[in-house]
Amino acid sequence: MPLAVNHCGNFVNLASVLNILLINEGQDPPAAPSPFARISRRVMTDVNNVLSLSAVRMKDPEWINPKIIAFDLDCTLWPFWVDTHVTPPFHKNADGTVLDARKRHVEFIPGVPDILKELHRRGIKLAAVSRTGEIAGAKSLLKLFDFEKYFSHIEIYPGCKVAHFSKIHRETNVAYEDMMFFDDEFRNIADIKKLGVFTIYCPDGIEAKVVDSSLIDFDKSRSKRS
C-alpha cells in the first residue's frame, strides 16, 4: 500500500500544534515549533470545513468584502511542502486520486475546494501566492486538484512575497488595504502586513471558520458603522 502524504506530521512525531492566531491587532506569535508540526490533526477528520457566513449578512449593501483574497499554498491549502515532502511529477488516477512520482497519495486539506468555490461564487478575486522553488510541481497540483479555475492570479516563485503582491497590485490596481492574505509562515505575514494588507496567520492551514471570522473582521476594520 502506498504511503499517504496528507499532513506535514507524517514525517515527524507531532508533539504539539499551534492554535490559529490572528495578528491584525498586533499580537506577537508564539514561539515557532518545528515547521513540520504546523498542521493539526484536524486535517485528518474535518469534514465540515465549509463557509457558513450568513447569507443575509452578505446581502447587506454596506457589507465590505476584500477585493482580492490571496492564499499561500504549502501547509495552507495542502498539508506539505511541495519541494520537500512529495516528489513531482504528479498525476491523477482514473479514480481521481493524485499520486506523486513515488506513487504516494497527495491530498489537500479537507474543505479547501468548498472554501475556494464559495469565495469565487461571491465574486471575490482569488490569488495563489507561493515562494516555493518547485514552481512546476505547485502549478501542477493546482490543476490536478481542480483549484486553478478559482484563481485569477497565480504568483509562484522564490523570494519575499512583497514582490508577489506588488505584481498583483500593479496588474489589478487594487489597493493593498482591499486585499486579504492567509499564510502559515509568520515571516510572510510580517512582510505583507507592512504593505497594509489584512493578514491572517494560520499555522494549522486554512479553515472555514477562520475565513468566516476574518471576513467579519475585515468588514469591521473597513466599515464606518459603529
TrEMBL record:
Highest taxon listed in the record's lineage: Eukaryota
Membrane-crossing segments per the record: none
Coiled coil: none
SUPFAM superfamilies: HAD-like (SSF56784)
Pfam family, one: Acid_PPase
CDD domains per UniProt: HAD_MDP-1_like
Recorded GO MF terms: acid phosphatase activity
Protein name (Swiss-Prot/TrEMBL): Magnesium-dependent phosphatase 1
Organism whose genome encodes this protein: Bemisia tabaci (Sweetpotato whitefly)
